[in-house]
Target: Class I SAM-dependent methyltransferase
Amino acid sequence: MEEIDYLAVNRASWDERVPIHVASDFYDVAAFQGGTDTIREFELAEVGDVTGRDLVHLQCHFGLDTLSWARKGARVTGLDFSETAVTKARELAEGAGIGARFVAADVYDAAEALGETYDIVYTGIGALVWLPDLTRWARTVASLLRPGGFLYLAEFHPFAAMLDDETGTTVTYDYFDQGPHVWKFPHTYTGSEVLENDTTVQFQHGIGEVVSAVAAAGLRVEFLREHDHTLFRRFGTLRPDGPRFRLPEGSPAVPLMYSLRAAASIR
Model:
């Protein structure tokens, strides 16, 4: 495969997506501005009370989840590689009257760019596929954590990425093919606006790779939980269940998401 600058290609795509996403029903910025938050129920239960704690959100996009954690009582910092996204996040924070720090930097440069440590490192859903090296990522996470702090990760399950797009019942893709995968789609996931920067480069990471990287970075895995729901209609057969989507009742359940929490040692 011809070598491709994954970071430049992906940044161009995400820069272009920011205004489209901000205007979309999917993100519903107006509802956020009206006082709602975007943190999922299972995340709240698994992260616990964040009141008075310092939380950094890696790969934060334009900051809705970051600012939602602030509404839950955390002191928040968001980091994203898109200057366009970070600029919008700052505007939203100011408009909502929420104290927050947003920094533009590649996630691998987070420790240097932020210059601080945190009680919680939170990384949002759909983040890991943009990273080629999870060992380096996990070391970065560990360097950002204070003694006794923890990483919380909620992600789409890599098993689901093997399945066909229509039914979600047929194994179609190779679980162990890490990529890079170069994808070309005319639209982003929020609507029909045609993208000029329609190419992205993604990387597939299995559960074993994620857990091994976290453990090798010196973090202690507290739990790894697999979930039979997801947050969008990934397969045509999925049915809405409140804010989530599941396979139809009576169908064999498969893991569609997972969550992981891992703690730094108390030194």
The chain has eight helices and eleven strands. The two ends are 45 Å apart (CA to CA). Helices lie at 6-22, 29-33, 41-47, 64-71, 83-96, 110-114, 134-144, 207-216.
